[in-house]
What does this fold into?
Amino acid sequence: QYNPLEIVRQSIRTIHDWPKPGVDFRDITPVLQDPRCFRMLIDIFISRYMRQGLDLVAGVDARGFIIGSVIAYELNLGFVPIRKKGKLPFETVGEDYNLEYGSATVEIHTDAVKPGQRILLIDDLIATGGTMLAASRLLRRLGANVVEAAAIIDLPALGGSKLIRESGLNVKTLYE
Ligand code: PRP
Ligand code: HPA
It folds into this structure.
């Protein structure tokens, strides 16, 4: 029987030992490449987020842009990019987060959201949760109401989705 969630799942591939030995990298490019799968993936999110009174979709650099902008377009909402440091031209605020070695910073334009706006935060994958947490801190600093943090894939063994929930955010992922 027709099961879009299962069809999309079968198009996500795992690349062993990439980008380094021991890592099983979850690769969504086959989903994006197939028009039927791409549409199914987007429609899964659309059916969840239609009629939720959202004001904006915020996507995280870089893979959160690919699905976040399409979800925003389909919901008739605006899209806000949360970018790696040094990419946004107007006035920004930034939040640091830890990587396995060292740290990174994400930034948002200070005028990207208005206080009280209801935001859907989107990325492709939650690993340690550092990226999504830093993104949500940015939105909250600007006074936004982050309705949900959503991703295609969760890697629960890395504990990120649990940390994000403990920060008080709703989290939705489609696959583990
Ligand atoms: C990946 C992924 C998420 C983040 C998840 O992006 O797309 O944004 O890592 O990891 P975390 O939960 O441990 O923070 P990456 O930083 O590799 O950047 P890219 O999208 O530019 O490749
Ligand atoms: N896939 C994609 N992005 C990632 C992964 C992964 O397995 N782990 C950390 N970021």
Summary: Residues 86 and 138 are 15 Å apart (CA to CA).
